[in-house]
Design goal:
By secondary structure, this protein is an alpha/beta fold. It has a domain at 3-122 and 181-201: Rossmann fold. 35% of the residues lie in helices and 23% in strands. It has helices at residues 3-10, 39-44, 57-66, 101-111, 126-133, 137-154, 172-181; strands spanning 30-33, 50-54, 70-74, 87-93, 112-122, 185-192, 195-201. Helix 5 runs antiparallel to helix 6 (137-154) and helix 6 (137-154) packs across helix 7 (172-181). The longest helix has 18 residues, at 137-154. The protein starts with a helix and ends with a strand.
């Protein structure tokens, strides 16, 4: 889905795919991991300067054309180029499923201030399964890889890497185990609309 289509969804509260992070005091500093063109920040926090990181340079260029309220950086969730304890909230809208969670979650923990929160929407198995049904043979093989990683995550085991990818689906149990292993507390994982929603807090 294009970044402009994602922005349209983010701005439409009646769209079934619309799911946005919580409101915050204006003084709180927010980072969006896998920000694309900044659509989630544009829709959720127009009252402040926020931060976004994505691996796609084209998406970041589009974001800079759409808004001057988001500070865009190119990079990965597994190695965030920010100082420790810099953010009050880290948002990851359907981006963490494409990361190695044993690396990305500790990085999120590191850059959160004590008492800071993480908010992430995730992929239950139905989403990659639906995509596989519309794919060619290569896409179906990719689904098998994603499914294996999801099972490993559910069991609390390390994900497999394939050509630099660690994509997985997520379960409530698997995400809870991964968040606990990274030091988070106040963990909540459950379904909201079509996505799995995970929220957690770095201890104060």
């Amino acid at each position: 889905m294009s970044n402009l289509a994602e922005l349209k969804i983010a701005l439409d509260p009646n769209n079934p795919r619309n799911i946005l992070p919580p409101s915050l005091p204006p003084s709180h500093v927010v980072l969006d991991i896998g920000c694309g063109a900044g659509q989630t920040m544009i829709a959720s926090y127009p009252d402040r300067v926020s931060y976004g990181i994505d691996i796609s340079l084209d998406a970041l260029k589009m974001g800079r054309a759409l808004t001057d309220r988001v500070r865009f950086t190119q990079g990965t969730a597994e190695q965030l180029p920010f100082r420790s304890e810099s953010f009050d909230l880290v948002v990851a809208r359907v981006s963490l499923p494409y990361t190695n969670l044993r690396k990305s979650l500790p990085e999120i923990y590191r850059i959160l201030r004590p008492g800071g929160r993480m908010w992430a929407t995730l992929h239950p198995i139905g989403i990659p399964y639906e995509q596989a049904g519309l794919s060619n043979f290569k896409g179906k093989l990719l689904f098998l890889y994603v499914a294996v990683n999801g099972i490993l995550l559910h069991l609390g085991l390390p994900q497999l890497s394939l050509f630099g990818s660690s994509e997985s689906f997520q379960t409530c149990r698997g995400m809870r185990l991964a968040l606990e292993a990274s030091g988070f507390e106040g963990i909540s994982v459950g379904f909201q609309k079509i996505h799995l929603l995970a929220e957690a807090r770095r201890p104060s």
